[in-house]
Design goal:
Blueprint (H helix, E strand, L loop, with lengths): L3 H9 L8 E4 L7 E2 L3 E2 L9 E2 L3 E4 L9 E9 L14 E4 L11 E4 L15 E4 L9 E2 L10 E3 L7 H9 L4 E5 L3 E7 L3 E2 L10 E2 L2 H11 L3 E8 L3 H11 L5 E5 L9 H6 L4 E4 L2 E2 L3 E7 L3 E6 L3 H19 L9 E5 L3 E2 L5 E9 L7 E4 L18 E5 L5 E2 L4 E6 L2
Parallel strand pairs: 6-7, 13-16, 13-17, 14-15, 17-21, 19-24, 22-25
Antiparallel strand pairs: 1-12, 2-12, 3-11, 4-10, 5-7, 5-8, 6-9, 18-20, 20-21, 22-28, 23-27, 24-25, 24-26, 26-28
Helix pairs in contact: 1-6, 3-6
Bound molecules: adenosine monophosphate and magnesium ion.
Length: 404
């Protein structure tokens, strides 16, 4: 058996971030930036009005009320705004460039003009004085060209994309979303919602792994369930490889008579025993020099644990993110038993009543057995118990691996 860290290291040593790709901004939502984004445009790009009203020289309205002749009109989008002559005003709309000569905007509400008037008046009565710079948005007030707007590694959401566009970008260099093949194995599996019949069970791992893949920011490519037939499995894997960046299989990796994944892939990937519970048998390798394959054991709880402990760090590496998440701490709310010599990962429910640390209890009343799949629905994290601990008592400190 090798330690959890040794195994994680051996996996990460063979996984490279996917090559970054330049994509239209509209396709970058939910992806991670692969480089710093600096402003090409200033934000705002030119000095403009923050209000609908009249552009003036502040000095000309200091004695308000005062009537000024209106020299022109500047709607938003104007390319050649008229200048404001001394002693005059120019009607201006929000977002329109401030005319030469003007240093302030008088909102329409502070004039004798009705808001929304269509006809340009010959003169405007300004009823209140305004300061220099009033209702004027200065070019570069938010960002200047060359300023860093977004840092490499940023997860691009709605506001990050709008910032990039405002700063002049139409495309962004991002890490592509890894496409992750999801393959279940076992003669006993039947599709969701069908009557299993004697000796068969629903394939719950396909949706489990596909969901975990999606929650990890990757795109699942569901390959379905194959029976315990190594030739069939090899065919499915060969057909899927060109369209995927990683593969996660479940089942068929231990020492049973029908260990299909082992039989099909043993000459191409390595199988080993990791000192952990659950999830001891693990397979990993790189197919076609490009596609990391995680061959997980079949028990759903083993799948969940193996995913968070081994697959998720690999997927984060593909995404160009730090592979390892920091381990938090928690306190056990109840007692449970632990296997000697293996690190234990227990799906737990958080009871956030701890004054110092959150307290946790196993999600499955029946203990940590790896077939208790329905109780997994309540789990919010994994409690992590060291190899040399053989029993956890209420109040004991444990590690905590959160996934949300
Ligand atoms: P295996 O590693 O193939 O021997 O599977 C271990 C256990 O996990 C067995 O009880 C299987 O029936 C169960 N199992 C394997 N694959 C799945 C699956 N896709 N969905 C639900 N249970 C599974
Ligand atoms: Mg099986």
């Amino acid at each position: 058996m090798i330690t959890v860290e040794e195994y994680q290291e051996s996996v990460l040593a063979r996984v490279e971030p996917l090559a970054p790709r330049r994509v239209p901004v509209a396709q970058a939502h939910g992806l991670h930036l692969a480089e710093d984004v600096t402003a090409v445009l200033a934000v705002p790009p030119f000095t403009n009005s923050a209000m609908d009203g009249f552009a003036v020289r502040a000095a000309d309205v200091s004695g308000a009320p005062v009537s000024l002749p209106v020299a022109g009109d500047v709607p938003a989008g104007t390319t050649h705004p008229v200048a404001v002559p001394p002693g005059g005003a120019v009607r201006i709309m929000t977002g329109a460039p401030l005319p030469a000569g003007a240093d302030a905007v008088v909102p329409v509400e502070l004039t004798d003009q009705p808001p929304g008037a269509v006809v340009l008046p010959a003169a405007v009565e300004v009823r209140r004085a305004v300061a220099v710079g009033a209702h004027v948005r200065s070019a570069g007030e938010d960002v200047r060209p060359g300023d860093t707007v977004l840092a490499a590694g940023t997860l691009l959401g709605a506001t990050q994309l709008s910032a990039a566009v405002s700063a002049g970008h139409g495309e962004l260099l991002v890490r592509p979303r890894p496409r992750v093949g999801v393959l279940a194995t076992g003669d006993e599996l039947c599709p969701p919602g069908t009557d299993p019949g004697p000796g068969r069970i629903p394939d719950s791992n396909s949706v489990l792994v596909a969901g975990l893949v999606r929650e990890a920011g990757c795109e699942p490519v569901v390959l379905g369930a194959v029976g315990d037939d190594p030739e069939r499995l090899s065919e499915v894997v060969a057909a899927a490889l060109p369209g995927i960046d990683a593969l996660v299989t479940s089942g068929g990796v231990s020492v049973g008579t029908k260990d299909v994944v082992k039989a099909a892939l043993a000459d191409r990937i390595g199988f080993t025993k990791v000192a952990m519970q659950p999830g001891k048998p693990q397979g990993f390798g790189v197919l076609d020099g490009r596609v990391p394959v995680f061959a997980l054991p079949g028990n759903p709880v083993s799948v969940l644990v193996s995913f968070h402990v081994h697959v998720a760090p690999g997927l984060r590496r593909l995404l160009g993110l730090p592979a390892r998440l920091p381990l938090a701490r928690a306190r056990a709310a109840v007692a449970w038993r632990c296997p000697a010599g293996r690190r234990q990962f227990v799906p737990v429910v958080l009871e956030d009543d701890g004054v110092d640390l959150p307290s946790v209890r196993p999600a499955s009343a029946g203990g940590s057995a790896s077939h208790l799949v329905a109780s997994l629905a309540a789990a919010e994290a994994l409690a992590v118990v060291a190899e040399d601990v053989d029993a956890v008592a209420p109040g004991d400190e444990v590690g905590l691996l959160r996934w949300s």
